[in-house]
């Protein structure tokens, strides 16, 4: 019995992904709450019956993706190595070998998550949990039977799942879950990826490295909607140079399975309708939706948007006073470290006696294309839209040192956006090797509202690509912010440890 | 906007014509040295057109630590910043400030021409390395008449050989990093097998191809430096410059006078006088070997030694390191040194601490037999050594430069003793920067000093000074070590209460490859005010990761600000914002027990 209440637990968390695990652990370990965490049995392809501790990030997202991206990036290394005198012709690639290694690593990490929860004194209950009322969770145990848990507070951290665009033959297409557990590369070695958000584009880039004939179809004129325009342009150019076929302003309309097992994809673009044959696999990266179906939200008085997104306030509290939600199911900023931040803020708010808001402003993120892209703060377009006054844009495009000898023509691109009257850096964007690693430290500075002068006075590290960030001296252009008044940028209380 | 730019261009053109006229009127140095001086016909106008982001200057070095630090409302910075904008030459093409700027340039020329004594040049620079070229270009951009001399190009330096670009480009950072990238590719190719790539045979290296490609790149960079000099309208003289007096330099037998003389001659390797030392090589040579050694002995435990040991280990050599001290990389953070020492051993580099070579014998087959003495007095012998690198230190290149004769004060290491604006303490018309001033021998530091020198002396920015705090430095070994701010030991010297955060982890790519290499990250925090004092890392991409960290250490970010930053997942760098519990705490300089 939880102390001082008539409930079994102080907290029951549904979902042991990054956010749910962190929230449960901190509530238990740091603030002494009695916590149970409900999660589905482990498996690679998620469903109503399959999940696993670690959640999307560890099992079906960031981690397996990055491992496959590493694997794929070797293709680039083989060709670059030639310039450095290495005789290594591009060898054959064994997908099943990589997959078995990946599986092992993911299983290991899943075990780590289980252990983290156990060590924090959180009871992990395997099964499917749903709400009966605002204080009661019913778990259909995977071992059979039903267990009813009562809780003072309930946290919904049940994530999202990939959705397919509703077109004819979409049942033949797969989504990110299946891509990351694909038993073998398809025959014929041709893949159509639909969508150009970061998921679709990372997969497209990855498969291209593995030697797949890659076709990427998307509705906009450039991939990666929402990111900085110039960077999107650079990414598209890089992908094209590496042999990807890009189909901007294109939507697939029909997928037909042929008798030999291959697919034909009919698509509509600027020039009308055409069909691409001999496609081995169709991958949909057309968005994700919150996992909120049939978990009893109405019964508990938790309100959602039309698309199922749980509505929360700035403390991650839902419309039910004792029920909170965080991570992808709240569709704020769907990134692992953000869910972790929300988890810690929740624990401090609900059990630490320190109401704490997670701050979603100036969060750095990366897209693991080849080469990758990294970004923090406002894109140039967003800066123009949301800020007022003069904005100074600094850009630099240069050949990374490795490419001078490897012969690779690609250039690294970096961009800094500065609010002229305060000299504050409001956005930094980069496309090129190592940019996600470079961005982290830069992101801290931007988050702490560093000025351009402060960047300038930092002595570079030579020779690196990163030093370019502190040596961009003359602005490329000045643009005008369109907002009438400057928005209030005062940060409210951020979370305490 | 476009109209404004056109106006600016017109204005620049007018200034250019005016300057060309005034330059013609000024006495030409050609009367003295017609053949030796390659006069550049490029104008200052084109110089500005070529001023890309990397070339352009800034006067922003001026803000000091007294400024409001990452303040939410940086009003305090405003006026200073505006001033910086208005006086920065890099901003010339962008706004009406250029009017003021061109006026100040004119003022400088007038002031220069009204000097009592006439000089051939406003500035004469000896040495076209990073610092010398930066200083000269910026001085020229401020309207100074500048000449620079440099020795003929060669990869191995001597009294008669050098080349534009200097140590960094020809015998340091650049070739080293290229060789390092190439060497780490072996590891990459081998790791690829664990990721499912099926190699028929182990990777083989064509050393000649690597060397040729590397040297092509060095030559290209040397040409870029030459072009920059030309574009900035600087007179380039190929030859060895020697000081005659406080205002006169002699090159190729011709005497040239200058109002200011800048010494930027760098350093060179020193080889201790042991028996058979003539059979050893220095860092100049090892960066351009005709053949990769099968067995390499590196003497020294500093960053050059560590880097070269790593590089040739990666190319497959059997590598031994002898060093006099007990630990590698003296001066770096102890945890980092311990960690990297373990990693070196794991990679199969043979380390021998407290060991000094005493005798080197060249055998008939050309291989070396090296006798060394341990601290205990015990002698050991290493034979069949293909190359022996002496990485035992560098010293300023200030011999036979006429410095002492001209009364320029030299320090203990023969460095030119300068004040906080790189001016000789004995001879006001002489300045020195970069390695030969022996402060912090790093390329970006020389570049900074070059910038501040030009701004101070020719740009009228008397408050500008180089800032030496929180300069990151990196050892490009495998794995890399990167560091900024105070080490744990330094922090304890200066502060009573310290929190140390440590994280050691296997980078994600090593989860699949057989590489057992681990990364280490470390933060040193002042427990009194939560301020970050130092950030250190050993591991892949450490150099790239540390750059951003150096900005935040420099500007006194607190640990809680770091904690509030959301990580980038999955990266190694995110570890810097996810370290929650201190590994060690010191109170009143005493380690606290758990």
Automatic annotation (TrEMBL), chain A:
Gene3D superfamilies: 3.30.390.30, FAD/NAD(P)-binding domain. Catalyzes the reduction of glutathione disulfide (GSSG) to reduced glutathione (GSH). GO terms for cellular component: cytosol; mitochondrion. InterPro entries: FAD/NAD-bd_sf (IPR036188), FAD/NAD-binding_dom (IPR023753), FAD/NAD-linked_Rdtase_dimer_sf (IPR016156), GSHR (IPR006324), GSHR/TRXR-like (IPR046952), Pyr_nuc-diS_OxRdtase (IPR001100), Pyr_nucl-diS_OxRdtase_dimer (IPR004099), Pyr_OxRdtase_I_AS (IPR012999). This is Glutathione reductase. FAD binds at residues 66, 129, 328. Residues 9-343 form the FAD/NAD(P)-binding domain. Residues 472-497 are annotated as: Disordered. It is an enzyme of class 1 (oxidoreductase). The active site is at residue 462. Disulfide bonds join 57-62. NAD(+) binds at residues 195-202, 287. Keywords: Disulfide bond, FAD, Flavoprotein, NAD, NADP, Nucleotide-binding, Oxidoreductase, Redox-active center. GO terms for biological process: cell redox homeostasis; cellular response to oxidative stress; glutathione metabolic process. Its cofactor is FAD. Binds 1 FAD per subunit. It catalyses: 2 glutathione + NADP(+) = glutathione disulfide + NADPH + H(+).
TrEMBL record, chain B:
This is Glutathione-disulfide reductase. GO terms for biological process: cell redox homeostasis; cellular response to oxidative stress; glutathione metabolic process. It holds the Pfam family Pyr_redox_dim. Residues 122-450 form the FAD/NAD(P)-binding domain. It comes from Apatococcus lobatus. InterPro entries: FAD/NAD-bd_sf (IPR036188), FAD/NAD-binding_dom (IPR023753), FAD/NAD-linked_Rdtase_dimer_sf (IPR016156), GSHR/TRXR-like (IPR046952), Pyr_nucl-diS_OxRdtase_dimer (IPR004099), Pyr_OxRdtase_I_AS (IPR012999). The keyword Flavoprotein applies. Its cofactor is FAD. Belongs to the class-I pyridine nucleotide-disulfide oxidoreductase family. Residues 471-579 form the Pyridine nucleotide-disulphide oxidoreductase dimerisation domain. Keywords: Disulfide bond, FAD, Flavoprotein, Oxidoreductase, Redox-active center. GO terms for molecular function: flavin adenine dinucleotide binding; glutathione-disulfide reductase (NADPH) activity. It comes from the Eukaryota. GO terms for cellular component: cytosol; mitochondrion.
């Amino acid at each position: 019995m939880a102390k001082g209440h008539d409930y079994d637990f102080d907290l029951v968390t549904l979902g042991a992904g990054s956010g749910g695990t962190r929230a449960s652990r901190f509530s238990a370990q740091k603030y002494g709450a009695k916590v149970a965490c409900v999660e589905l049995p482990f498996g690679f392809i998620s469903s109503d019956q399959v999940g696993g501790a670690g959640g999307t990030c560890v099992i079906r997202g960031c981690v397996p993706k990055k491992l496959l991206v590493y694997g794929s990036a070797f293709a680039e290394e083989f060709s670059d190595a030639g310039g450095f005198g290495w005789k290594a012709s591009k060898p054959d690639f064994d997908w099943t070998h990589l997959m078995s290694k990946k599986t092992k690593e993911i299983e290991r990490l899943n075990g780590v998550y289980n252990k983290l929860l156990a060590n924090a004194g959180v009871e992990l209950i395997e099964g499917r949990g749903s709400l009966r009322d605002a204080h009661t969770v019913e778990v259909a145990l995977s071992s059979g039977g039903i267990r009813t848990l009562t809780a003072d507070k309930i946290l919904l951290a049940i994530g999202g799942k990939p959705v397919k665009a509703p077109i004819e033959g979409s049942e033949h297409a797969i989504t990110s879950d299946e891509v990351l557990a694909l038993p073998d590369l398809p025959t014929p070695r041709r893949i159509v990826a639909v969508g150009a958000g970061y998921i679709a584009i990372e997969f497209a880039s990855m498969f291209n490295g593995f030697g797949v004939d890659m076709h990427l179809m998307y509705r906009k004129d450039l991939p990666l909607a929402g990111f900085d325009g110039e960077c999107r342009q650079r990414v598209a150019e890089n992908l094209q140079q590496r042999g990807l076929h890009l189909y901007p302003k294109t939507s697939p309309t029909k997928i037909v399975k042929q008798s030999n097992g291959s697919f034909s994809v009919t698509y509509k673009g600027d020039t009308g309708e055409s069909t691409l044959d001999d496609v081995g696999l169709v991958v949909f990266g057309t968005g994700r939706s919150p996992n909120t179906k049939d978990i009893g939200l109405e019964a508990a008085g938790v309100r959602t948007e039309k698309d199922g997104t749980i509505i929360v306030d700035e403390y991650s509290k839902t419309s039910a006073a004792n029920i909170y939600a965080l991570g992808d199911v709240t569709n704020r900023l769907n990134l692992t470290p953000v869910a972790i931040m929300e988890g810690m803020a929740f624990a401090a708010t609900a059990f630490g006696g320190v109401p704490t808001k997670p701050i979603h402003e100036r969060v750095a993120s990366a897209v693991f294309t080849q080469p990758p892209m990294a970004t923090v703060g406002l894109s140039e377009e967003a800066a123009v839209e949301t800020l007022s006054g003069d904005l100074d844009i600094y850009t630099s495009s240069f050949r990374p040192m490795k490419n001078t000898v490897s012969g690779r023509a690609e250039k690294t691109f970096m961009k800094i956006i500065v609010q002229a009257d305060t000299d504050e850096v409001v956005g930094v964007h980069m496309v090129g090797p190592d940019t996600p690693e470079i961005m982290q430290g830069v992101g801290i500075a931007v988050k702490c509202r560093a000025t351009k002068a402060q960047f300038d006075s930092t002595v570079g590290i030579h020779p690196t690509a990163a030093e370019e960030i502190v040596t961009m001296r003359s602005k490329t252009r000045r643009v005008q912010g369109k907002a009438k008044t400057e928005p209030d940028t005062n940060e409210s209380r951020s979370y305490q440890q | 906007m476009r109209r404004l730019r056109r106006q600016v261009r017109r204005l620049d053109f007018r200034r250019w014509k005016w300057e060309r006229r005034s330059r013609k009127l000024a006495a030409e140095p050609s009367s003295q040295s017609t053949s030796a001086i390659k006069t550049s016909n490029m104008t200052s106008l084109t110089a500005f057109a070529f001023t890309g982001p990397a070339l352009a200057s800034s006067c922003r070095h001026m803000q000091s630590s007294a400024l409001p630090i990452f303040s939410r409302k940086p009003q305090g910075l405003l006026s200073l910043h505006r001033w910086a904008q208005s006086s920065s030459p890099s901003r010339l093409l962008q706004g009406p400030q250029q009017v003021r700027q061109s006026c100040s340039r004119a003022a400088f020329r007038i002031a220069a021409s009204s000097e009592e004594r006439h000089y051939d040049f406003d500035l004469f620079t000896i040495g076209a390395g990073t610092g010398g070229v930066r200083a000269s270009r910026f001085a020229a951009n401020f309207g100074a008449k500048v000449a620079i001399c440099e020795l003929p190009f060669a990869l191995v330096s001597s009294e008669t050989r050098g080349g534009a670009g200097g140590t960094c480009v020809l015998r340091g950072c650049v070739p080293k990093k290229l060789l390092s990238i190439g060497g780490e590719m072996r590891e990459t190719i081998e790791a690829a097998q664990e990721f499912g790539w099926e190699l028929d045979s182990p990777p083989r290296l064509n050393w000649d191809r690597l060397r040729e490609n590397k040297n092509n790149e060095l030559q290209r960079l040397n040409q870029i430096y030459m072009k920059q000099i030309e574009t900035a309208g600087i007179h380039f003289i190929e030859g060895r410059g020697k000081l005659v007096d406080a205002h006169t330099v002699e090159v190729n037998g011709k005497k040239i006078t200058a109002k200011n003389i800048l010494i930027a001659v760098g350093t060179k390797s020193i080889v201790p006088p042991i028996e058979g030392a003539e059979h050893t090589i220095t860092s100049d040579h090892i960066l351009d070997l005709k053949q990769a050694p099968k067995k390499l002995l590196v003497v020294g435990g500093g960053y050059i030694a560590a880097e070269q040991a790593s590089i040739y280990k990666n190319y497959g050599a059997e590598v031994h390191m002898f060093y006099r001290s007990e630990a590698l990389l003296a001066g770096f953070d102890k945890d980092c040194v311990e960690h990297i020492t373990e990693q070196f051993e794991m990679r199969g580099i043979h380390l021998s601490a407290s060991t000094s070579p005493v005798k080197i014998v060249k055998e008939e087959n050309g291989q070396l037999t090296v006798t060394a003495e341990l601290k205990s007095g015990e002698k050991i012998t290493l034979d069949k050594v293909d190359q022996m690198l002496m990485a035992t230190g560098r010293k300023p290149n200030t011999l036979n430069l006429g410095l002492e004769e001209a009364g320029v004060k030299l320090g203990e290491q023969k460095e030119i003793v300068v004040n906080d604006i790189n001016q000789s303490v004995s001879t006001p018309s002489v300045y020195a920067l970069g390695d030969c001033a022996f402060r912090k021998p790093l390329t970006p530091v020389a570049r900074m000093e070059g910038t501040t020198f030009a701004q101070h002396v020719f740009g009228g920015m008397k408050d500008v000074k180089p800032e030496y705090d929180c300069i990151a430095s990196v050892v490009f070994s495998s794995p890399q070590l990167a560091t900024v701010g105070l080490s744990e030991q330094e922090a304890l010297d200066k502060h009573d209460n310290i929190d140390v955060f440590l994280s050691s982890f296997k980078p994600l790519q090593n989860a699949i490859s057989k590489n057992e290499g681990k990364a280490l990250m470390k933060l040193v925090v002042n427990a009194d005010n939560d301020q970050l004092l130092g950030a250190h890392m050993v591991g892949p991409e450490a150099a790239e990761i540390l750059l951003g960290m150096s900005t935040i250490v420099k500007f006194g970010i607190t640990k809680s600000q770091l904690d509030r930053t959301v990580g980038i997942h999955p990266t190694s760098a995110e570890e810097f914002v996810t370290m929650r519990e201190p590994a060690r705490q010191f109170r009143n300089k005493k380690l606290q027990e758990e």
